[in-house]
Amino acid sequence: MTEEAGIAIGDGIATITLDNPPVNALGAGLRGALMTALGAALHDPGVQVIVLTAAGRTWPAGADIREFGRPPEAPSLPELCQAVAGSAKPVIAALHGMVLGGGLELALAARVRLAEPGTELGLPEVTLGILPGAGGTQRLPRLIGAKRALGLMLSGLPIGAARAEELGLVDAVTEGGSAAAAERLARAYLAGEAELPEVEEQRRRVDPGAWLLAVAAARSGLGDPQLPAPGRIIDCVEAALLLPEDEGFAFERAAFEDLVATSEAAALRHAFLAERRAAKQPDLAHVKPREIHNVGVVGGGLMGAGIATALLGAGCSVTLVERDGEALAAGLARVATHHERAVAKGRLSPEAREAEWARLAGATGLAALAGSDLVIEAAYEDEAVKAGIFAELDRVARPGAVLATNTSYLDVNRIAAATARPGDVIGLHFFSPVQAMRLVEVVVGAETAPDVIASAFALARRIGKVAVRAGVCDGFIGNRILTAYRTAADFLLEDGASPYEIDRAMVAWGFPAGPYQVLDMAGLDISWARRRRLAATRDPARRYVAIGDRLCEAGRLGRKAGKGYYLYPERAWQGVEDPDVLALIAAEREARGIVAREVTAAEIQDRVLAAMANEGARILEEGIAARPSDIDLVMLLGYGFPRWRGGPMLAADQAGLLALRKRLVDYAREEEAFWRPAALWEELIKNGRKFADLND
Ligand code: T1G
């Protein structure tokens, strides 16, 4: 890592170039180098103007996230920004790439900001559970007004260079490179041919009434009480108006230090880094992916059409195959609908839609896929159906084609065994709706070739998805943990809790919906079919809760049937509690000789977390997942696990492994097979380690 700040001096101009690949994160090394270079420029009598620019693909994209939680190293970013803002010689910041977080705060400290076309600027700190802690909450409102400043900081979303110029966040969008433009401005300024904006001008523009109105409006719009950062951002913006400048900066720093130490912030940083860590596949570092341009998609249903649309958006040519003309027309119409919606939302231009549509073909036989580089099967979730398709693909697909199944829990090895080329077979488990869900579980079979795995990761990146590697087992990572979650919930249901208490408890814990609300939305018949599929092999020694079966037998298949665990009057979207369900559950308890007991929300939350973390520990022991943060990422991106809790493995670390393992031991006395703690708990505890220590 270079972490340099090179300086070039000539004609009265000092040009400082930041260089810390890949995103010029403002780590301690770069901060120190910049402070040194700034000092040299300030003390050099031959320098009258300073140009600050960055090498590589972007101006600093923020503070170095990996430094948080560690002892701070001088100079701090606020000190650095203060040094730039206090410079006796004007500083011109030449911006390009992603000017984010501390990077934007550094730019705000400069006298002038010039941005290249295509530059994006934002303060995403709130997405990390923190706030702009290097002067952003103090300087930005003075520059663009409190209302707009709060909008940027509370959304965390970037804006483009043109919008930034409209707001006054940048002084100009340059023609071509911003470094050259900055040098031209410096020369014109030195020649007395150009003025630079005065910082004091900005202060005079402050309208206290509008400022306080913006603060009050932002406070009234605060959402999730579980996340403190938004409220603290608003407090800092208020302080920027009401406190003297130095006290305002101190107020912001104190708020930043409070937030960075919270468990929510630690979890959100963990989620950010987990997403980047999942892409690291050491065994594939030198493996070349296969070229993929023409893709066949078998099945034009909800998943197949979504997958086809994602592939078209990434520039692939797609042949959609269905069993007959009617089904094919329906599949193509689904893709057309995705396109129409994207155009309506401004996410796709009409021209781009035409170009994508031109790359889409339809067929009613697999022979049309003879030239495909990749085939993704998204047919009915039945092993025999999939095996039949793969057997035919084996006959028609060209040698070297990658053959992928979108199965959500079937055995990829058994599907591969239907072909003579198991090395070419892999699982690509997309999530529904494909256009909204970023997660893909890459399910690696026993014989899957390394370059096929590499091809899957390369394709996922290309279509804007986050790939997580999984081994073959029932449910891979996500569905296996979901099954554990639902089993723990069903035990509680049979023991005495109502489905409504369980759903409320899990929503209070941070899930967008409870397990029974989700089941009603998805349809109870899907998991019922799976239970019946596994019935013959079910271990009679294991506790089995049949309440879901009783509901299905009574025709209560979920929202689509107008009733499931909830009642849906006139097919209402939101279900209502149904006393008939409580009666059905009571009857089932009586049949099982169970006397209902009081179950608290805390016990529900504790048991669900213990069940998920224990299943995660087993998944790690079996090598189904490479690292705990991969498991967390699957649950965060695919199953609505609250991001500010970081996933089941991080939540287990934060709850304390000793306490959690003790709970598992206690629960195991009721039902040993399900609750028996994985051996990994003992191994971590005795070595004083956490799951996080297993994240390479
Ligand atoms: N710190 C450390 N490493 C970072 C980083 C950061 N801020 N941003 C990216 N990386 C690493 C990333 O882990 C990956 O590493 C590589 O760079 C490429 O990233 C005081 C407190 C800039 C839009 O939140 O949004 O400033 O895997 O794969 O898809 O107020 O990175 O190669 O080893 O994501 O092209 C605020 C976070 C920080 C921006 C580029 N800034 N970064 O996306 O590449 S808090 C952010 C991003 C702060 C101040 C506060 C994206 C990107 P590796 P990548 P990308």
TrEMBL record:
Residues 294-470 form the 3-hydroxyacyl-CoA dehydrogenase NAD binding domain. It is found in: Peroxisome. It comes from the Bacteria. It catalyses: a (3S)-3-hydroxyacyl-CoA + NAD(+) = a 3-oxoacyl-CoA + NADH + H(+). Pathway: Lipid metabolism; fatty acid beta-oxidation. Keywords: Fatty acid metabolism, Isomerase, Lipid degradation, Lipid metabolism, Lyase, Multifunctional enzyme, NAD, Oxidoreductase, Peroxisome. The keyword Ribosomal protein does not apply. Residues 475-568, 605-689 form the 3-hydroxyacyl-CoA dehydrogenase C-terminal domain. Its main location: other. This is 3-hydroxyacyl-CoA dehydrogenase NAD-binding domain-containing protein. The lineage of its organism: Bacteria, Pseudomonadati, Pseudomonadota, Alphaproteobacteria, Rhodobacterales.
